[in-house]
Predict the 3D structure of the following.
Amino acid sequence: MDNLVFEESINTELSSSEFVDKQWLYVNDNNNASYSGQVVIDTTSLSNCGSYINWSEAFFSMPLVLQWEAADLANPGLFSDTLPLDFFAGLKNGYWQLLHSLTCEFNNGNIIQQTPFLNIFTTFKNLTSWSENDVRCWGSICGFCPDTCDSWLYNPVQTTAGNTGVMATSGTGICNNRNAQYISITSLSASWVPVADPAVPLATTGNSVKCYNSATVASSVSDNIRQIYNKGFAQRQSWINYSSSTNDGSSITNLSANQASLMSGIAGGATNISGYGQIFQAYVQRSAGSRAIIWDAVIRLKDVADFFQKCPLLKGSTMRIYLNTNQTYFTMELTGGTISDAVGSAVQTGVFGNQIKAGSISLTSSPVILGGGGTNPVMVASNDVGQGAYPLTPLQGASVDAGAGVVANVKVGLSIVKTQFSQFTNQYQAPITSCRLYAPAYTMSPIAEQRYLSLSPTKKIVYNDIFYYSYTNVPPGTFSFLVSNGIPNVRGVLVFPMLTKTANGVATDPAFVAGATTSAPLLSPFSTTGATPDPISLTTFNIQVSGKNLFINNMLYNFEVFYEQLVSSNQLNGSLTTSLSSGLIGYEEFQSLYRYYYGNVSRSIPSEDGVAKAIQIVGTNNSTQPVDFIVYVEFERTLTIDIRTGARIA
């Protein structure tokens, strides 16, 4: 500490800068407002600007339209434009879930190969390299906030029996879409005969009897799924939702005159006008039976490809980037719960002895992915009491045994720039009508530029690219599969497990939800799969490189997989420096949900560089369900560039 004080006292700050100017430039895509397929971006205009481009700061801007509407707008039922549906839907973690693959050409030569499901590997990379401060600074603009690790549930079957519990309100299969903390507050009419309970306070108003049942986390058993919710999902929704009504839905007169004037733009304040609504009215669209959220998603290039992180300042280099996207459309049916006094129901009010039969939420069509992708980036909230989709299908309790609750049929879609699916009656469009690539252009001082070119007239960029492999329907028990017969310069292997489509739930009762269907986890709007692996336990895990085990002993226990490999992957200083680290996957997160299985394969002697090596994966599927594996192999590539001209040197 004393040395630091002394050094700061004698230090002389340099006021001069190597750069005399910095300007942010952008180029529009080449799609001419057509986004049903690939997005193509050409950087020629940037390369001809006469300045040095810093690609590690560059980012994509993609205008998105997330919309949902009643299946029959002529008869939308309770789907009105006044419903509080701000938290009905959102996106999976990270706006890069919109990217299925990315290909980059540098001066007409490929430098980043097309890899399917790039979004999955990108999420792993950022979960293991971002810090909590990065999430605080960049999370809202990049749509990145990790999902809560212990809030998932597994509902393997949709049956009539499910209508008595809360499992079906989250969907089928792996679900992690409960987005609100649960507090049970019950209000029932006087026609319900109460069970004598002197501990319960009652309040009689007119001919009604009301009570509250304060069920909280502390007063519930630990296996109650209503104890927990996905805080990350709720946070990501809050970043893109701006209500067009006031806090109480009616007036802002409770604000001071100055606050009201500032928020609404009307001197002295006003009623029935929301300042937030005035500011963000171009981004939130609503009408009878229809809702849309329109915003600009930012995807940093360095987050999706290692090349851009390693790329130096370049002048005159032309790139052409191809993006295959994950635009999606699907339909759903939501069934509301009912209140009855039937005996044997699973969920009770806890006061009157009468029961609440919970509702359900199901797909009625498999998600369609537009743009060549394979992941559904949209998540729809649970319709359990108090959850995001609940306003569409509230509990019905006007009379005893009221019968079936409210049924809502909904279309949901995510599009780039404008509505891309003709199935929607209402068509929406973003204010910005193209995707853009932004990059900063630096102008150096003559002395700095001369020094820069003299020190490194050519630059060798060493970066990682990835191969993709998939293995489907791996049954419980031991497995062994060959990933590749030969890959040179291997640096890492990542295994991403997830349930098969058949294991992700079965819709067995057409009378319960008409036309119900299920999907693979990657296509499910109820799960976080893609942004997280499925919680699949693997034991006796090992990676064999050219027939030799990477780990001297097979990985048997969770702490071995986490401590020996995962915790040091991509982290600052390999997570070895106390108080100076990064990474968002702790041991709790790994055990509960984030079960990435990773191996560092970069250690080798120089003579082995460039030698192709076979990769094999062995282990035991410790789950009772069949699983699919996606395997990514990182390998090293090099690119040499003439700094003066931006030309690629073979």
In short: The CA atoms of residues 333 and 362 lie 6 Å apart. The two ends are 50 Å apart (CA to CA). The chain is about 15% helix and 30% strand.
